[in-house]
Amino acid sequence: MEGEANDHQLKQQEKKAEKAFAVLPEEIKTPMRTVLNLQKQRNSLYFEFEKELQALHNKYDTQYGPIFLERSSHIKSIENFWLKVLQNSDEASSFIYEQDLPLLQHLIDIQYHQSADHDSFKVDFEFSANDYIENTVLSKEFVIKNDVLEKSVGTEILWKGRNSFTKKTKQVKKGKKGKAMTKTVDIPSFFRIFQTRSPEDEEDIPSDEEDIDADPFEDEMNLGYELRDEIIPNALYYYLGIRGKEEDEDSDEDEKGQKKPSEVKVDGSGQEKQECKQQ
Questions:
Q1: 27 burial class (0-12, 13-18, 19+ CB within 10 angstroms)?
Q2: What are the start and end residues of every segment in region (Disordered) (predicted)?
Q3: Are 260 and 253 in contact (CB under 8 A)?
Q4: pLDDT tens-digit profile of 54-89?
């Protein structure tokens, strides 16, 4: 949803238009003033359209809620449902590592909550009782204003005992003849997405991985949109492989063996997905 961004941009353009009008030649100011006023009338109608569109989004988000809740009650009895859903998504699977699997097998629900008055939203991950974390729900909130992601806020994970998901210990030597020492290092993990981040943060790259992407803020933003617009609304299709990796492999070529043209990606409502800018 980009209503706030469009409204903000149009209001800024109205101000710039007034300044540009002031320096126009006198002979065209009279007809141009009429054109300028007509543009403002059109903008006012557009602002009303955006308000009604936001209200429509909110209306249907409210109606989706009970459907997703009832779906959750049935999904919880299906072993590893959400793990398979995430593994079948190109976007989500890129965040999952081998050491994450024991805890992700306890993932029993994923829900999103859209803010009613702006584009911010939160994704909740619910876990069954397990030997790894105290939390029953881990959340990631994406704070968005005027189509700009300002920050993402994650739940602090309360580990039971040693955290072997986002950290590991390894032996290092000090100098050529130095004693071997044990050092704890960060490693890439799905559970790193629950860190709180902002665009001003230094690059948060696990020290044990040289080839890991250097922009986790943007990557997690993309994952958030993918979860909200694609994965959660269409979880059944990802579980069955109708969407995601298996679908990509089956549909890359047509019956004659020719490469198919890429399709426009849509969100859960069937609309073309919008990208959110970073600050």
A1: exposed
A2: 246-279
A3: yes
A4: 889 889 988 999 999 999 999 999 999 999 999 999
Distance CA 125, CA 132 (A): 15
Residues 60, 93, single domain; the answer is: no
pLDDT number for residue 266: 40
Could you read off the pLDDT of 185-197 as tens digits, one per residue?
Answer: 999 999 999 999 9
Residue 65 located in a structural domain: yes
Residues 70, 87: one domain?
no
Question: How far is Cα 18 from Cα 43, in angstroms, rounded to an integer?
Answer: 14
Distance (Å, whole) CA 136 – CA 192: 17
The residue from 75, 100, 128 where one domain ends is: 75
CATH number, domain of 235, equals: 3.30.1120.90
Domain extent for 210: 78-251+267-279
Query: What is the DSSP code string of 54-98?
Result: HHHHHHHHHHHHHHHHHHHHHHTTSTTHHHHHHHT-HHHHTT--G
Residue 8 to residue 47: CA distance in whole angstroms: 10
How many CA atoms lie within 13 Å of 257's alpha carbon, on the beta-carbon side? 0
